[in-house]
C-alpha cells in the first residue's frame, strides 16, 4: 500500500519537469506502472536510436515479399531515417517506377537471426501518422517452423493501426485460438504511447503505457496448435501500405511516418517462491458487482517486499506456487469461485507476504464490488478481511508496521522537543496519535501516556524518537507537525518504519515547516 503512495507522490513532483527529465505523463506512467510487476523481468536488450544510422548488429531492413504486409517493403534509404533520437519508417509514393515498378515503397525492420528470444517483456514507444491505406505495426513472429508455416508457428501483434482509426488492434495468431484472442483499445495514434507485451510461459499480457489491456492464456494440456509460444520469436517494426485488411491507398495522403522512440526487451526471470511464513490459506469473497459472474477471477498474486509471486491459473485455485496452469481443475484460465462467490486457496505451506493482488476479466468494463480478502495460518481462524472494489486489478495489503522512528537531523533554529503532531494516514483517512512527552504506545485521543503533558513528543538529545504503536497497523503515510511560531524550519527529518523494532526501512527524508507528509 505504501508503495502506491510513493508512486503518486513522485508523479506530483515531476509535473513541472522539462523534457530532459521526462517527455510526458505517458512516459511516467509506463515507468511507474510496473514498479513491482517488473520483478519478473530484467532489462536485457534495447535501442534508443541515438545515432544517425540504423544499428545493423540489432536490425535488418525487410525486403519485398508475398504477404500483404511486405508488398512494398524495400531496403532503399529513402524510407529509413534515424535522427534526433528517433527511427522513422516511411510509407511514400515511388517516384522511380523504372527502377522499381511498384507504386509505393515502405520501410520495416526486424531482429530475425540477430536477436531471437523466448518469453520476456517488450516495450516500444511510438507514434504514427494516419492516411488511407496506412498500416503501421509492432509485432512478434515465430523464428522457427517446426510447427509448420503461418499461422502455425505463431504471431503476437502488439499494435496494429489502420487508416484514421482512433484505436489499435492487439491480436494472437496460431493454428487454434482460444477466446479472447484480439482486443481493440482507444488511443491517439498521433501521440507517443508505449505499446507492450509481457510474454510468460502460461499467458501473454498486452499493455499500453504500462496498463494491461487483455490477456491470452495457455489452456491446460495445450499443444502447439493453441500455444506455439514456447520457443524463439523475433521483433518486427513495419510501416505498411495497402492490402486486403487495410484497404486501398490514397496516394494524395502520402508520405506517412511511423516514428519509434525506443525499443526495450526485458528477459523473463521465473519468480521463486516467497519466503516461508505463517499464512497458508487465502480466502476470497466476492460480494457484489455491477455486472459480473464470479468465475472471472484471472489472477492471484502474492507480494512480499515489492516482489510478486503469481499463482498458476486454472479453475479451482492452485495448491502450489509455480509457472504453468493450475493443478486442481479445468482449463478455464479462471480461478473457480463457488455459487456464493467464495474461494479458499490452500498454498500447500505457509508463506510470508505483505499483500495479495487480484486480477479480474474486464473486457466489458466490469466493476467487482466489495471483494473481501483474508488470510489464515490454519484455515480456521482468518484475520480481518480487507475489502475493496476491483476493476482490472487491485492489491489487498495485510502487513502493517508497529514501530515508527523519527530522526531530526538538522535545523536552522529549533529544539528537538518541538514535534507537535504525528498522524497516520490510511487511504486518505487520518488517525492522530495522542500528544505528550515520550511518544504514545497506542492510538487514542488525549495526552500521551508515557510522559509529561507538555503537548510535544519527546525526542532524545540526538533528535531521535521511536514510537511503539502497540500492534501492527496498516497505513499509507505519516504526517509530522512541528512548532513554527517563529518560522522555524526543521531540516533533514527522516522517518523509518519497522515491524520488529530492530530492522527499520526509511521512507524518506524531508524538511519540515509547519507539517510534512512522508509517503
From TrEMBL:
Pfam families per record: Glyco_hydro_16
Molecular functions (GO terms): hydrolase activity, hydrolyzing O-glycosyl compounds
Lineage, uppermost ranks: Bacteria, Pseudomonadati, Bacteroidota, Flavobacteriia, Flavobacteriales
Alphabetical list of InterPro entries matching this protein: Beta-glucanase-like, ConA-like_dom_sf, Galactose-bd-like_sf, Glycosyl_Hydrlase_16
Annotated organism of origin: Salegentibacter agarivorans
Domain GH16: start-end pairs: 47-271
Full protein name: Beta-glucanase, GH16 family
UniProt record similarity statement: Belongs to the glycosyl hydrolase 16 family.
Ranges annotated as spanning the membrane: none
Gene Ontology terms describing biological process: carbohydrate metabolic process
Amino acid at each position: 500500500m505504501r508503495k502506491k503512495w510513493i508512486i503518486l507522490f513522485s508523479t506530483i513532483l515531476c509535473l513541472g519537469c522539462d523534457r530532459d527529465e521526462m517527455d510526458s505523463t505517458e512516459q511516467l506512467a509506463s515507468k511507474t506502472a510496473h514498479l513491482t510487476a517488473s520483478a519478473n523481468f530484467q532489462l536485457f536488450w534495447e535501442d534508443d536510436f541515438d545515432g544517425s544510422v540504423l544499428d545493423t548488429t540489432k536490425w535488418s531492413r525487410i525486403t519485398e515479399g508475398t504477404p500483404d504486409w511486405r508488398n512494398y517493403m524495400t531496403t532503399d534509404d529513402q524510407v529509413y531515417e534515424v535522427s534526433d533520437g528517433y527511427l522513422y519508417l516511411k510509407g511514400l509514393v515511388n517516384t522511380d517506377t523504372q527502377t522499381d515498378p511498384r507504386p509505393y515503397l515502405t520501410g520495416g525492420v526486424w531482429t530475425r537471426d540477430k536477436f531471437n528470444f523466448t518469453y520476456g517483456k517488450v516495450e516500444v514507444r511510438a507514434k504514427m501518422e494516419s492516411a488511407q491505406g496506412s498500416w503501421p505495426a509492432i509485432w512478434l513472429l515465430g523464428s522457427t517452423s517446426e510447427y509448420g508455416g503461418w499461422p502455425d508457428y505463431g504471431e503476437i501483434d502488439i499494435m496494429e493501426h489502420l487508416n484514421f482509426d482512433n484505436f489499435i488492434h492487439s491480436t494472437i495468431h496460431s493454428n487454434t485460438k482460444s477466446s479472447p484472442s484480439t482486443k481493440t483499445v482507444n488511443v491517439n495514434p498521433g501521440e507517443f504511447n508505449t505499446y507492450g507485451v509481457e510474454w510468460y510461459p502460461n499467458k501473454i499480457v498486452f499493455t499500453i503505457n504500462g496498463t494491461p489491456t487483455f490477456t491470452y492464456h495457455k489452456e491446460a494440456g495445450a499443444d502447439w496448435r493453441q500455444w506455439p509460444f514456447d520457443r524463439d520469436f523475433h521483433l518486427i517494426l513495419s510501416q505498411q501500405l495497402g492490402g486486403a485488411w487495410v484497404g486501398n491507398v490514397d496516394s494524395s495522403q502520402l508520405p506517412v511516418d511511423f516514428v519509434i522512440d525506443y525499443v526495450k526487451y526485458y528477459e523473463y526471470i521465473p519468480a521463486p517462491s516467497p519466503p516461508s511464513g505463517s499464512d497458508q490459506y487465502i480466502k476470497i469473497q466476492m460480494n457484489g458487482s455491477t455486472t459480473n459472474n464470479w468465475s472471472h477471477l484471472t489472477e492471484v498474486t502474492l507480494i512480499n517486499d515489492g516482489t510478486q509471486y503469481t499463482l498458476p491459473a486454472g479453475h479451482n485455485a492452485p495448491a502450489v506456487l509455480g509457472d504453468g496452469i493450475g493443478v486442481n481443475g479445468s482449463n478455464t484460465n479462471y480461478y473457480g469461485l463457488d455459487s456464493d462467490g467464495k474461494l479458499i486457496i490452500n498454498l500447500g505451506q505457509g508463506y510470508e507476504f505483505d499483500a495479495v493482488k487480484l486480477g479480474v476479466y474486464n473486457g466489458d468494463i466490469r466493476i467487482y464490488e466489495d471483494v473481501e480478502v483474508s488470510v489464515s495460518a490454519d484455515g480456521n481462524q482468518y484475520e480481518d478481511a480487507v475489502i475493496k472494489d476491483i476493476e482490472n486489478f487491485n492489491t489487498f495489503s495485510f502487513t502493517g508496521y508497529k514501530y515508527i522512528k523519527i530522526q531530526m537531523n538538522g535545523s536552522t533554529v529549533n529544539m528537538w522537543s518541538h514535534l507537535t503532531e504525528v498522524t497516520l494516514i490510511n487511504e486518505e483517512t487520518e488517525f492522530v496519535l495522542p500528544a505528550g512527552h515520550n511518544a504514545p504506545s497506542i492510538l487514542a485521543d488525549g495526552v500521551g501516556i508515557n510522559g509529561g503533558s507538555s503537548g510535544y513528543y519527546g525526542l532524545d538529545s540526538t533528535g531521535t524518537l521511536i514510537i511503539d504503536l502497540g500492534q501492527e497497523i496498516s497505513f499509507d503515510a505519516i504526517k509530522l507537525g512541528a512548532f513554527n511560531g517563529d518560522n522555524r524550519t526543521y531540516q533533514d527529518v527522516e522517518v523509518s518504519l519497522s515491524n520488529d523494532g530492530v530492522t527499520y526501512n526509511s521512507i524518506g527524508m524531508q524538511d519540515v515547516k509547519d507539517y510534512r507528509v512522508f509517503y
